[in-house]
TrEMBL record:
It comes from the Bacteria. It catalyses: oxaloacetate + acetyl-CoA + H2O = citrate + CoA + H(+). This is Citrate synthase. GO terms for molecular function: citrate synthase activity. The keyword Protein transport does not apply. One of its GO terms (cellular component) is cytosol. Pathway: Carbohydrate metabolism; tricarboxylic acid cycle. Keywords: Acyltransferase, Transferase. PROSITE patterns: CITRATE_SYNTHASE, IF_ROD_1. It comes from Rubrobacter marinus. Belongs to the citrate synthase family.
Amino acid sequence: MSERGAGFVPGLEGVVAAETRLSHVDGAAGELTVAGFPVEELANRATFEEVVYLLWHDALPDAGQLADLREALARRRALPRATLDLLRAAASEGTPPMDALRMAAGTASLRAGDASADGDAAYEEALAVVACLPTIVAAYRLLLDGEEPVDPDPELGHAANYLYMLGGGVPGDGSVRALEAYLATVADHGLNASTFAARVIVSTGSDLVSAVVGALGALKGPLHGGAPGPALDVVFEIGEARRAEPVLREKLGRGERLMGFGHRVYKVRDPRADVLATAAELLYATDGDAALYGLALEVEKTAVALLEEHKPGRNLQTNVEFYTALLLHGLGLPTELFTPTFAVGRVAGWTAHCFEQTERGRLIRPQSEYVGERDRRWLPIEER
Ligand code: ACO
């Protein structure tokens, strides 16, 4: 059957492929709304558990509901032996963290097999996968370093546990607040590639763990989960404020893109950059290297000015990656954990989109435009 006539839109740009109440990205105004809240309102106040509850239930939890969710996640945080064995095998091969995370996330199905009290398999899968991603990332990091994983502490919340399991002891309030702000800021962002991938998978009637594994695969790509690492590398390369202009000018002169600037959707400053800049400022003022933060501000100012010179009127502004890099570095995370940590936050959105897709959605099955040959005739092998 011919699939012609649908009108091909490369990259599906401008195509509306879902209705959602979860988040809205206004690229022209530079606004991000998450379940009705401006991201600025949410990020500076919410804990990760509150964001998860909000996305799953479209309302903030009361104290009892929040306590229940915290407890439900705490019970599912420790990894089964099979997951740890898999991580040990991956570490012995030096597998990159995103690949190890993708493989180990699939083992959440082992947990999700224990039906929840109300028998809701998708909800149980969501709890299992949200709870275990930070444990996997932290355990794998330690295994790569030849150390033993640190067991989660049931008394600590989700963000605090992540830092704790990375081996730094019980984290200070400033670090926990900074990580909460990061996780809330990246929890959901419209119909981005990994979220779309998750929705496509559950739209077939497949399970939620499969959807998260697929989403992790999509997030890993450099055009999406990105590389906040390179943005930080540039700040380190510059080293001191007076070198910002010559170094950045030289990069632009060589035709390089300045990492951490520009965005496909936002044509003004990415609102997440503001939120994370504030969080980073607080973190660096208390726990961090204030000189590095000051240098990053100089680099940002210089880069924006040079980009205006380089591409006048394009308004190339700071994107989320620039301050992500600074914030996660300030929390002591190595660059190879930046994308896995993005997944630790974004899984809140992935799971919520899976619920939404299952409730309201339809099998996602677009069309393609056939541009191949027609009416070929079979040639026996000796005649080819
Ligand atoms: N440095 C130098 N030049 C740039 C930059 C940059 N950071 N960003 C865009 N430009 C240039 C483009 O080359 C283009 O030039 P041209 O018209 O001569 O071809 C012009 O500015 C306009 O580019 P856009 O169309 O606005 O950019 P596009 O939508 O194609 O790309 C992207 C967006 C990929 C984010 C780009 O800005 C970029 O490569 N930035 C650097 C990498 C980066 O920070 N990535 C993380 C993005 S945040 C996220 O995805 C979570």
